[in-house]
């Protein structure tokens, strides 16, 4: 039997034994009665028991210890109070459960936390109709970046989550974009942040002797613990997790100064709504030396390059006023953009360039005995035990296909889980349950089971964070009401907010002023009147649309609709809607519209032309970053690359090139080069 399986049986048996005994029990009793401990010598038992206690604590299951005034380890008494294991009952409304069900259905397979989210919903809906069963189709779509999910990323997250909870130093190999190399890192993990489709780890870097931010998609190989110690560090008292989650892109890192940026009146409302939290807007002063109507936006910055990129994306609606060095760099970048799009741009020869490789040091196994149990596996076993015991009490047989669907596992995994549960016992040869798969059904012995798993277990930290993260990711964008109130009830039941203990969803662009209106129009099938800002064309337009769905795209939330003025499907960004008004005109869904919306891969604003592909040169400095996001079609001798950039509108393409601040140059088509030149006039 594998060591991790032995550990699972031992830890589950320990829980069962303590829950079955209403009195405190000694360490000697635990060694004698609990499956897996009896064969160990005294020293081995002490090590394993303390390690199991620490691991259970990291999973949110805390044993109560009564220590004598004087005495030895053997004299300590242990209990597992019910409140330390069972989840308090949460009275969800049908609407709240429906909203949670929708969240899972949309995220399943896309979100790295999909598995613990699924298990968490099983626990919080205990005794109610399963929120995992198929519900009605809802007019919403989620398109997370590819880095938002994946089994490898999920495994890293599970390890890092446990390390944050246990305060364990971790080691891994990390690809540095700035140095274009892979190096070994040793980090004290403090917090995780999810923003713009990416997970980031914030922690203390031993190599840099400072707090650093690591993008999880750049971790190479496995994440391992650095030591065998129970705890390795304590986060500094002055560490503020919210400081990192609430920063703009140009504020990630050590602050270099404060910039003053003039924004014209046309976009001032947008800057105030979406970016005021990263700085401050004020009226111009004589010393600013500005002409025209507008405001001055003051913001701290750590990355001049990122801030300049943001300024250039607004065309002539924004410009840097101070400090002088930042203004000078912005002017140079603008001039470089114009120069590189005049005439013919020459590129270096094409070469073959190998990808950087890891030295593999941090990815090797540390060989330190038993591996840490994945929290998802532990939670799945506890959830399955509850399902099996519930069936036994009701005298029912569970359908194999139903269990596989609800737990999202294979038949082999189910068979393995049942095999593990069948040997979990609470002492004296008394087993918690006995089940077996017979054909397409699971039979559970009605006479052999305990009461230990007949109520929902407390959510593991990973499950709780997954549940809150899913709620925070959707915010108010689900058609069903209920996520906000469901969140409040979950936090109340847990006694704390999981977002404060390891994972936080960074705030996105603010579209709350229209999201309720849009959702209402979708549900009621009413025509919407939009007052919409097309930023790249620097104009406001009015549109009448038939709303069909909300889509989470690469730059925020979009409304997928049928534009009556263009007689075709369109996507409009919610945060560019200055106003949305529901009319009294109802509409019938048009044939083929939803299918066409689903086929449109490129979410753009306003006018959507037929999709095209631009060949874009990327500077050597920027190439390393673009490799993660775009398909490289040519490697050039000077370190630059050529990528193919699909686009749905010329406006969108121009904005992307302007954001490149001279590091991106359109090679073809020619009309795209001309569009960039026109934008710089």
Map the helices and strands.
Layout: H1 3-20, E1 25-26, H2 27-33, H3 42-58, E2 64-66, E3 77-79, H4 94-107, H5 114-124, E4 140-142, H6 151-166, E5 170-176, E6 181-195, E7 198-205, E8 210-215, E9 219-225, H7 241-245, E10 257-264, H8 265-275, E11 279-282, E12 294-301, H9 304-312, E13 318-322, H10 324-340, E14 350-351, H11 375-394, E15 398-399, H12 400-407, H13 411-421, E16 433-438, E17 441-449, H14 461-474, H15 483-494, E18 503-505, H16 512-524, E19 526-534, E20 539-553, E21 556-563, E22 568-573, E23 577-586, H17 593-599, E24 612-618, H18 620-626, E25 632-636, E26 641-647, H19 650-659, E27 664-668, H20 670-679
Parallel strand pairs: 4-20, 6-18
Antiparallel strand pairs: 1-3, 2-3, 5-6, 5-9, 6-7, 7-8, 10-12, 10-13, 11-12, 14-25, 15-17, 16-17, 19-20, 19-23, 20-21, 21-22, 24-26, 24-27, 25-26
Structure described in brief:
By secondary structure, this protein is an alpha+beta fold.
């Amino acid at each position: 039997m594998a060591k991790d399986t032995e550990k699972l049986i031992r830890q589950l048996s320990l829980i069962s034994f303590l829950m079955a005994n209403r009195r405190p029990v000694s360490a000697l009793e635990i060694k004698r009665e609990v499956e897996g401990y009896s064969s160990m010598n005294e020293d081995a038992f002490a090590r394993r028991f303390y390690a199991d206690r620490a691991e259970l604590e990291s999973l949110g299951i805390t044993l109560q210890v009564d220590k004598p005034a004087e005495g030895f380890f053997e004299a300590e008494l242990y209990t597992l109070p019910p409140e330390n294991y069972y989840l308090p009952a949460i009275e969800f409304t049908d609407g709240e459960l429906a909203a949670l069900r929708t969240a899972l259905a949309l995220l399943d397979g896309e979100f790295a936390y999909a598995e613990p989210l699924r298990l968490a919903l099983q626990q919080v809906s205990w005794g109610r109709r399963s929120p995992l069963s198929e519900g009605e189709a809802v007019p919403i779509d989620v398109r997370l970046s590819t880095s938002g999910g994946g089994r490898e990323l999920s495994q890293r997250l599970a390890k890092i989550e446990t390390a944050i909870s246990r305060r364990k130093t971790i080691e891994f190999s990390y690809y540095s974009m700035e140095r274009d190399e892979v190096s070994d890192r040793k980090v004290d993990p403090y917090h995780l942040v999810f923003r713009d489709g990416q997970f980031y780890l914030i922690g203390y870097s031993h190599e840099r002797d400072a707090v650093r931010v690591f993008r999880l998609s750049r971790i190479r190989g496995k994440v391992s613990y650095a030591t065998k110690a129970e705890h390795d560090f304590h986060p500094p008292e002055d560490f503020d997790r919210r400081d990192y989650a609430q920063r703009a892109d140009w504020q990630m890192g050590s602050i270099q100064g404060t910039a003053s940026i003039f924004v014209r009146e046309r976009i001032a409302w947008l800057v105030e709504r979406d970016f005021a939290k990263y700085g401050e807007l004020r009226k111009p002063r004589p010393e600013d030396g500005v002409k025209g109507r507008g405001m001055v936006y003051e913001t701290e910055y750590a990355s001049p390059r990122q801030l300049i990129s943001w300024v250039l994306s607004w065309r002539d609606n924004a410009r840097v006023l101070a400090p002088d060095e930042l203004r000078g760099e912005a002017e140079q970048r603008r001039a470089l953009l114009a120069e590189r799009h005049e005439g013919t741009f020459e590129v270096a020869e094409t070469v073959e360039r190998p990808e950087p490789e890891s030295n593999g040091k941090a990815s090797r196994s540390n060989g330190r005995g038993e591996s840490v149990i994945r929290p998802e596996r532990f939670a799945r076993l506890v959830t399955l035990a509850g399902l099996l015991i519930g069936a036994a009490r009701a005298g029912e047989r569970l359908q194999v296909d139903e269990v596989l669907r609800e737990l999202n596992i294979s038949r082999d995994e189910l068979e393995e889980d049942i095999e593990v549960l069948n040997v979990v016992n609470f002492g004296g040869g008394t087993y918690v349950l006995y089940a077996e798969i017979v054909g397409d059904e699971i039979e559970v012995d009605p006479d052999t089971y305990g009461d230990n798993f007949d109520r929902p277990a407390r959510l593991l930290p990973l499950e709780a964070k997954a549940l809150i993260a899913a709620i925070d990711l959707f915010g108010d964008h689900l058609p069903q009401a209920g996520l906000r109130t469901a969140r409040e009830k979950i936090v109340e039941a847990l006694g704390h907010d999981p977002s404060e203990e390891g994972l936080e969803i960074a705030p996105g662009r603010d579209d709350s002023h229209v999201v309720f209106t849009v959702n209402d129009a979708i549900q009621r099938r009413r025509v919407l009147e939009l007052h919409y800002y097309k930023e790249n064309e620097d104009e406001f337009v009015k549109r009448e649309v038939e709303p069909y769905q909300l889509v989470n795209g690469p730059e925020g939330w979009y409304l997928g609709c049928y534009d009556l003025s263009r007689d075709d499907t369109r996507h409009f960004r919610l945060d560019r809607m200055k106003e949305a008004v529901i009319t009294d005109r109802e509409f019938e869904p048009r044939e083929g519209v939803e299918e066409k919306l689903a086929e449109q891969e490129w979410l753009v604003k306003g006018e959507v032309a037929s999709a095209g592909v631009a060949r874009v040169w990327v500077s050597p400095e920027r190439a390393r970053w673009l490799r993660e996001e775009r398909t490289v079609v040519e490697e050039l001798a000077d370190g630059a690359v050529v990528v193919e950039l699909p686009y749905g509108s010329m406006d969108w393409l121009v904005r992307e090139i302007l954001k490149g601040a001279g590091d991106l140059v359109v090679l073809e088509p020619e009309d795209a080069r001309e569009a960039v030149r026109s934008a710089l006039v």
